[in-house]
Design brief:
The chain contains seven helices and seven strands. By secondary structure, the chain is of the alpha+beta class. About 35% of the residues lie in helices and about 25% in strands. It folds into two domains: about 10-50, GTP cyclohydrolase I, N-terminal domain (GTP Cyclohydrolase I, Chain A, domain 1, Orthogonal Bundle), CATH 1.10.286; about 60-195, GTP Cyclohydrolase I, domain 2, CATH 3.30.1130. A five-stranded mixed sheet has the order 5-2-3-6-7. It has a two-stranded antiparallel ribbon with strand order 1-4. The chain binds zinc ion. InterPro entries: GTP-CH-I_C/QueF (IPR043133), GTP-CH-I_N (IPR043134), GTP_CycHdrlase_I (IPR001474), GTP_CycHdrlase_I_CS (IPR018234), GTP_CycHdrlase_I_dom (IPR020602). Pathway: Cofactor biosynthesis; 7,8-dihydroneopterin triphosphate biosynthesis; 7,8-dihydroneopterin triphosphate from GTP: step 1/1. This is GTP cyclohydrolase 1.
Length: about 200
């Protein structure tokens, strides 16, 4: 995804004006007291919702550790909660990502995997691309034996509008390397994913 051309980026005042237009489009009066600061708040919220455009996900994975005592089994980080927005309706996508890789000598700090998830989630997304981007970035940077990314999420554009189907979750996965080619490795991953959590914090 090409980063946006910041030279053409609108000013905060232009962003606030656009929110005023949407408030009027919704049928309300942006000048009434309760809405007075809403355009500024929405503009600030957007910088939070979409902060992923400012982050280079690949750079997060450049610091690796090789003193792993020969560890050569699956590393799995599961239940990484994320918040994203669908690019079709700007509606929230709330979900959990499970990220696994089979290291080839080098491992990465586990918080970095969660940061890669956030760097792509905090952009306008569709879930299929989010899943593939996380997997491809880990694959390119760590060059492991394999990467697996599984995402389960709820799309508010489906629960609060359109077909109005709450309780529906969407599941996507990208399997690369041994996770794609070797059914034993994939089965081992699924067993790890289905194991009850050993600790709840
Ligand atoms: Zn949508």
């Amino acid at each position: 995804m090409p980063p946006s051309d910041t030279s053409k980026r609108p000013t905060q005042a232009e962003a606030e004006q656009a929110v005023r237009t949407l408030l009027r489009w919704a049928g309300d009066n942006p000048d009434r007291e309760g809405l007075h600061d809403t355009p500024a708040r929405v503009a600030r919220a957007y910088t939070d919702f979409f902060c992923g455009y400012e982050i280079d996900p690949a750079a997060l994975l450049r610091r690796t550790f090789s003193e792993v005592e020969g560890y050569d089994e699956i590393v799995l980080l599961r239940d990484i909660r994320f918040e994203s927005h669908c690019e079709h309706h700007l509606a929230p996508i709330i979900g959990r990502a499970h990220v696994a890789y089979l290291p080839r000598q080098r491992v990465v700090g586990i918080s970095k995997l969660a940061r890669v998830v956030d760097a792509y989630a905090k952009r306008l997304q569709i879930q299929e691309r989010l899943t593939a981007q996380i997997a491809n970035t880990i694959n390119d940077e760590l060059e492991p034996h394999g990467v697996a990314v599984i995402i389960e999420s709820s799309h508010e554009c489906m629960t609060t509008r359109g077909v109005h189907k709450p309780g529906v979750s969407m599941v996507t996965s990208t399997m690369l390397g041994v996770f794609r080619e070797n059914s034993d490795t994939r089965r081992e991953l699924m067993a790890m994913l289905n194991r009850p959590a050993a600790c709840e914090f």
